[in-house]
Design a protein that fits this description.
Strand order of the largest sheet: 1-2-3
Order of helices and strands: EHEHE
Shape: elongated
Helix content: 25-40%
Oligomer: single chain
Number of helices: 2
Distance between the termini: 36 Å
Largest sheet: 3 strands, parallel
């Protein structure tokens, strides 16, 4: 991907939420990251997910801006 005339590509910020979606998480990450957008801020948040989600996120950690994998509180918050 090349920059438009006169400047760099715009910054894109993306947050992917995941709640018990481990079977789909890796495909989602690959779909986004394999586009190789050079100015991407990408955060993934999982809640109530299986250990498998955290394992997947660890494999992609070097390509993510940040990730959080923690259980939700009873009031639905992190």
């Amino acid at each position: 991907m090349t920059a438009p005339p006169g400047g760099p590509l715009p910054r894109i910020s993306l947050v992917t939420p995941s709640y018990n979606q481990a079977p789909f998480l890796e495909a989602t990450l690959k779909s986004i990251l394999d586009q190789n957008y050079p100015n991407l801020k990408y955060i993934v948040m999982t809640a109530g997910s299986h250990r498998r989600s955290a394992d997947i996120l660890r494999r992609y950690a070097n390509r993510l801006t940040d990730w959080v994998s923690e259980p939700m509180r009873p009031d639905g918050r992190h």
